[in-house]
UniProtKB/TrEMBL annotation:
GO terms for biological process: phosphorelay signal transduction system; regulation of DNA-templated transcription. It comes from Actinomycetospora corticicola. Residues 1-30 are annotated as: Disordered. This is DNA-binding NarL/FixJ family response regulator. Residues 12-24 have a biased composition (Low complexity). Residues 429-491 form the HTH luxR-type domain.
């Protein structure tokens, strides 16, 4: 294909010439793989110049990694190859330049280019040689550090921007906590994210993909979830379907996880698509994986409150797993974060929830992995307290009461509700005009003592089936979801 100018350009790294012979380019030397690729490509095609260009399509930039001969490839040529996803030939005043894409799956990660004299046409054989050496160039390019001076989050954001452009997918990035990763570890994690995203674009048939990055004490966890065709464990070791290209698939990602001393879990996500979870130790004294212990997500408006709660739980509750914080400004963001991150306990300030507290807590309870909710407030009005308890909240605690905070959150992680005596008294003192009968009050009192239906039946000299009906009636009239909540709200 011959073009004169592309519709969209990539940004070149500094001044470039419109034709070969302008800016100097790096010489890879004969010892490197890219250096050998360039040398052999130039020799076999008889070209006067040859280059291997690295393309970062997500960042919209390119740079010449290795070159032999004069100058650099025309900037328009590199942009045209990325746009067309196919070999491109351009003619400039003193040369004819052929460029072929270097691929990694559906992504163009580089360009192999050769320049010959303007009066000598490049043959189909020359094109075939360039495409052959592009495969070798791909091996070297994917093993080169992918961060390029970016942080992990910056790189992930740019990868998601590529997903939106290349696949037309909607994307979300959720970050929890802050942490520092060495470049080697961050690059391996980014490669796993890239492999997962390439697979989603190429094979998942998805409309949306979410990435979560969670910094915990001594660990970092990365999640990639899509709403596509789902995980096929028997599908040739791939996520959705076997895909060509270097360093992609379960085998490659598992190998990276092992090199990081991490854990890789891949299965079906909440929407029927694929959920990938990579947990990697990142501190001098990594903690054990918290998946078997309750994980906690703290949501508060002020960073100092979030950090304080996280610190108190980390120091005072060793039985908890990962304790993380999230900065969110809207209830729908909170629900989305819980859907993706799947905490066992959510500690949240009430003002991050909408005025309809019942609807907000119902939305959280409807999640496939519903968290136990603990409200974080210095004081909770009687109406709000009763509404929260009726909707399933496990407790309400002052963030400054560290000992009580640890007690309530730990109990919530066990599925238990914990309220102070004064809170229970306020709940019991609430209006009782609910049509509750004297017998139902008797049953409720015995439930509060921890008696079973059979024990209550014996004490009241009625059948266990009748006790069961009374308990069901109490649950309906009080709005309680279970016996524990029934005891908390009282009759």
């Amino acid at each position: 294909m011959t073009v004169t100018a592309p519709a969209r350009r990539l940004e070149a790294p500094g001044p470039t010439s419109g034709s070969p012979g302008g800016a100097p380019v790096p010489d890879g030397g004969s010892g490197s793989l890219l250096g050998r690729v360039v040398t052999q490509l130039r020799t076999l095609t008889g070209a006067r110049s040859a280059w291997v260009v690295r393309v970062d399509e997500a960042a919209g930039t390119w740079a010449v990694d290795v070159g032999e001969g004069a100058g650099a490839p025309p900037e328009d040529l590199v942009a045209a190859v990325v746009r067309e996803q196919a070999p491109v030939v351009v003619t400039v005043p003193d040369a004819t330049v052929l460029a072929v894409p270097v691929r990694r799956g559906p992504r163009v990660i580089g360009v192999c280019a050769v320049a010959g004299d303007a009066d000598v046409a490049l043959s189909p054989t020359d094109r075939g040689l360039a495409e052959l050496f592009a495969d070798y160039a791909a091996l070297a390019l994917v093993d080169h550090g992918p961060l390029g001076g970016r942080t992990l989050l910056e790189a992930v954001r740019q990868e998601l921007a590529w997903v939106e452009r290349a696949g037309g997918l909607r994307t979300d990035l959720v970050t929890v906590g802050n942490g520092t990763l060495d470049d080697a570890r961050a690059e391996e994690i980014l490669r796993v994210v890239q492999e997962a995203l390439v697979n989603v674009v190429a094979h998942a048939g998805a409309g949306r993909v979410q990435v979560g990055v969670l910094h915990g004490p001594g660990t970092v966890t990365v999640l990639v979830e899509d709403d596509g065709s789902g995980f096929d464990a028997t599908g040739h070791g791939g996520l959705h379907e076997a895909a060509s290209g270097a360093q992609r698939g379960l085998v490659a990602m598992s190998a990276r996880a092992r090199r990081l001393d991490g854990e890789l879990e891949i299965g079906t996500g909440t929407g029927g698509g694929t959920l990938l979870r990579l947990t990697v130790p990142c501190g001098p004294e990594p903690v054990a994986s918290g998946r078997a212990r309750p994980s906690v997500l703290v949501a508060a408006r002020r960073p100092v409150v979030r950090a304080g709660v996280v610190r108190q739980l980390q120091l005072g509750a060793p039985d908890l797993g990962m304790v993380s914080e999230v900065d969110l400004g809207a209830a729908h963001d909170l629900t989305a974060a819980c859907r993706l991150l799947g905490p066992d306990v959510l500690v949240v300030e009430p003002d991050l929830l909408p005025a309809d507290l019942t609807a907000a807590l119902d939305a959280l309870a409807a999640l496939p992995r519903a968290p136990a909710v603990v409200l974080l407030a210095e004081a909770c009005a009687d109406h709000a307290l009763r509404t929260a308890v009726t909707a399933g909240a496990r407790g309400c605690v002052d963030p400054d009461d560290g000992e009580r905070l640890v007690e309530v959150v730990t109990a919530a992680g066990r599925g238990e509700s914990t309220f102070r005596p004064d809170q229970l008294g306020r709940l019991a003192a609430a209006p009782r005009s609910r049509g509750i009968t004297a017998r139902e009050r008797e049953v409720c009192d015995l439930v509060a003592r921890g008696m079973t239906d059979r024990q209550i039946a014996t004490a009241l000299r009625i059948s266990a089936k009748t006790v069961e009906k009374h308990v069901g009636s109490l649950l309906r009239k009080t709005g309680a979801r279970n016996r524990t909540m029934l005891v908390a709200v009282g009759p």
